[in-house]
Design goal:
homodimer; 383 residues; alpha/beta; TIM Barrel; 8-stranded parallel β-sheet; 41% helix
């Protein structure tokens, strides 16, 4: 696939699984996949400077349409140079459609075939979001990739609910694609990804892939898999959808997740991920390391002169001790959250880098064995 | 003056004033003076990475003994590599003695000839601080420069109060100097600066200089001048003290201040400054610029695509618009405070740099005329 500055080139496949290593080219540069996209909700990855993000290996950032529509508003973003200008980030950016936030945190007033009416969390005003409006808002935000407006069902195991939401998602995609094309579409340097729904039901997922892929889009996403369901349901949803998605397009699993989730999904052919976990955990003093998960507020770290993760090359681990990080956490100093944000993101990016190297070398399952158990352990200061 | 890794070399004097341009060498490198020291209260300049501080021109940092004694405690700092280790800062560092904080914000239980007993703001426990203990604590913190424990009078215009506090400061200095020498002193790579008190009284200031300078110290400070008195009282105190201080030692005016204060003091022979204003203002969305002071929360900046200060080369002004800064301020994003912190410090450092260039060129008073009025104006978005 190669069009309008977008391309997707598979370089290697894993002999043992459906994993692939590829490059996703965008108008703002390439993304080597599998890749993790840090979340910059309100046009900033909380507590991180763009230069530092680049240096720790961030390739593509995500921003949230819902939050940016409320503040500062998409027309303000447009006037300030779009998200690339506002974020001082000249690499690729993706915006979600707002659907997930509207359905998960919005004070929803009404869902109709036309769209969703919800109450602003900022000023209580009523806002209508439709597939067309989501396209328009995201055009103003001007990321490289925009997401179609979908209906994300709150309970992925309620078949009736899921079925209705999935069908509506398909009809909304139809409208979104049409409006995206009518308003310049890919010619404007902006891709539209469709979102597969279908909850925890294999047949609904398969049918959703067929419906979504009836549109020739630059990429496809799997949605509705990070809404509190268990790991088995997530695996099932990805297993049902991923193999049916076109081989020559990027596949994005929305809102996932942990190292274990990454392997589960990558083995099933997923290329792109985003999740607030590394950045949110960082601000709550939780660090992902190659040895396991550490809570830096623990008194046991107070006098520990060792680096957080002896195997990490990030600005936090090469310069600061666990004792200093504990001091910064306990005193609520901004620097604590800043350093752990860079560290956690570096951990996720290095994991993806190792996965990208393991795929062509046929070592993906061996890497999984080496990494997953270790990185999910809850460590004490004595460990 | 040149001893134990410390030196003070005057390179140029201003023909019209008592200003001098010099280098203050410390065991952790040189400081080109006049210089402004950013305040890193709890072993971190709030919201700033050390690399960024270095790049915007920070030479020497300050940390607060009072806060670090309470948390994490000086013995923890020692175990974590001293302040240089904890702060990941290999340049010069200065610690205050804790006196200013004890007298200005401590819940004081008792002041005696021996020292001060006060209540910890962290856990309510009783803490005794004496001239000897201040030396010991600061030795554990291991900055390049430590300050003598002084009695900073709360009202610089109350002659009886000031006189008693100043005399006590001298007796405490005597004890501090003795204890500093007995415990290794300058041989350990740590200078002790004495502090001149005397409030707003010329004769008390002059007498205080005589008493303090009877000790052959590596540097001298003027204290008690940033406790709410008016600008005229501050000028008087500096005028009375500075000319009597030895020519070949650095002179540090504690807790000052604004661009106007800097010129007032530098013209009277001051070399070093510290103040929380640039960093604290930054976190309150206030920016110092070459055009004046701007409050970035103002709605009028919402769509302003211009840089905060078109004359500034900092990471904030070269990458972000006023509109983006306003968005980050209104949404309370960490990045807003981080960027304005670097900007405000860069403004202060560049001002000092211009002053250092103006002194040998005989342009100090011309620079003052150019800078002071402009930088103290309160600007609106329309300006």
């Amino acid at each position: 696939m190669n069009r309008h500055g977008f391309a997707f080139t598979v370089h290697a496949r894993c002999p043992e699984t459906a994993a692939r290593q590829a490059t996703f080219d965008t108008p703002h540069g390439p993304v080597s996949t599998p890749a993790f996209m840090p979340v910059g909700t309100r046009a900033t990855v909380k507590g991180a400077m763009p230069r530092d993000l680049r240096e720790i290996g961030s390739q593509m950032l995500l921003a949230n349409t819902y939050h940016l529509h409320l503040r500062p508003g998409e027309e303000v973003v447009r006037k300030l140079g779009g998200l690339h200008g506002m974020m001082a980030w000249d690499g690729p950016i993706l915006t979600d459609s707002g659907g997930y936030q509207v359905f998960s945190m919005g004070d929803i007033n009404r869902v109709t075939e036309q769209g969703v009416r919800f109450k602003s969390i900022v000023d209580g005003s009523m806002i209508d979001l439709t597939p067309e409006r989501a396209v328009d808002i995201q055009q103003a935000l001007a990321a490289d990739v925009q997401m179609a407006f979908d209906h994300c069902p709150s309970d992925p195991t309620d078949r009736k609910l899921v079925s209705e939401a999935t069908d509506r998602t398909h009809r909304w995609l139809e409208r979104g694609v049409r409006h995206h094309r009518a308003t310049g579409g890919e010619d404007r340097g902006q891709a539209l990804f469709g979102i597969v729904q279908g909850g925890a039901f294999e047949d609904l997922r398969a049918a959703s892939v067929d419906a979504v892929c009836s549109h020739d889009l630059i990429g496809y996403a799997i949605g509705g898999v990070s809404v509190g369901e268990d790991r088995e349901a997530m695996r099932l949803a990805v297993s049902a959808a991923a193999p049916r998605l076109p081989e020559d397009r990027p596949r994005y699993l929305m809102g996932v997740g942990t190292p274990r989730d990454f392997f589960d999904a990558i083995e099933r052919g997923i290329d792109l991920f985003d999740c607030v976990t590394p950045t949110r955990h960082a601000r709550n003093h939780m660090a992902f390391t190659t040895e396991g998960i550490r809570n830096l507020r623990n008194q046991g770290y107070a006098e520990d002169p060792r680096p957080l993760d002896p195997n990490c090359d990030c600005p936090c681990c090469t310069q600061y001790s666990r004792g200093t990080l504990r001091h910064l956490s306990v005193t609520q100093e901004m620097l604590g959250g800043m350093l752990l944000t860079l560290h956690n993101l570096r951990f996720f990016h290095r994991l993806m880098q190792r996965i990208r190297e393991a795929i062509p070398a046929g070592r993906l399952l061996a890497l999984r064995d080496e990494v997953v158990e270790a990185s999910s352990r809850r460590l004490t200061p004595e460990d």
